[in-house]
Amino acid sequence: MKKRWYYLGFGVLLIVGAIVLSYQFFGGFYKECANIALDKIFTFTQKSTVDGVHAHNGTNSLVTELVNVEVQGNTTIYFERPVEGWLYIESDSPVVLDTKPISLAAGETMRFVSAGRHSVLVSAGHLTIRAIPEIAFYDFHSPTASGVVRTWEDIKKYDIWNNYNVMVSEGDIDRYADYVAQWRAKGGKWIRNAYVKNASRGRGPDQWHEMMIDPRSDGIIVDEFMTRMIDSFPAWAQIIRDIKADPAAEGKMFYGFLSNHAKPELDIIVRAILDCGYKIAPEGYLMEYETEERENRVLHNWAGGVPRNWIRLFGPASINQMLFTLCPVDVGKNATRWNRFDSVDFKVHLDKTFYEIVNSPEFTDLGGVSFWRAHYVSEETMGHFNALIRHYLIEGNTKRLYDDPYILVAKDENQNE
User: pTM for the whole thing?
Assistant: First the structure.
């Protein structure tokens, strides 16, 4: 009996000694393997807190912060996006999203993802992930008769590359093949212009289906559904439903331009678009007003009343599936319709417009924002508009970007420069 205990004790000592020696010589190797094989895992779910970082932290009505964390070593972070849509990712280190490496430009990117749980693998530094709306540039048409964006180089010059995730162009897709490839490679989507009239450059209703299933682009945006065309709505609605039923159109998006106001007469066409999971694009054009008091009153009522009316007639899906279209036009034939007063600072008018939208509860989870039209936007206004896009729709701010006065201060000619 004593011999058994003796041999047992001796065996235990040998095992312990072997473990100690093994760790002395190979401990660093074991530790590194463990770090690689079993990444540190942070899981971000609704109302959870990890290291003081709040997941699903709403910043404004259109932007939600999903992840904001410092990491050390290989770290896998899980988070959820309740509905499909766009992510903004900013990282100090390379990113693997859902097991696929993705490219970053200046440490950031935007990617479209499905609804549900996702993972990001990073190695070090700060990581920020936000759910952001669709941000569509309308439109790239080179060369243009006016405006500032005439070449593909202008897309990067004016920071359109980093501030938008959807590009719209004229329908001749072969003309833009190289640009489409570059835009898609960075994670963006490319949409083609189409029209409600067959005589419109060969891209009318008879061509919608063919354009939608074309693998060279990601969908079409149709200009424009008006109530005076109501007799054509049933036929057009059927075309839209036929497109949705076609497996070749899977993953493509159909957009329909509409007037700013929700109207019962639009029911057939709007229902077809929304039922198919496609998007309406109301034209939320708003002119500036001569006094700041009236400007503030009209903007505030507009930012609440417009979405309320859409929800009343067509339900919450009309907001979630809406690409709301603004109007920063200040050059060309339409300039004086929107930029009406020399005494008003137009960039402040645009700032106030964004401010009201992102702080409106009725616009919560708005599907996206676009504008009409790059042809008619000056270099100065394009710069301001892109800065507002980043400030409100990417960074998620709720406070105004500019503190300049709405009414321009008249310059005294006798004042010394």
Answer: 0.87
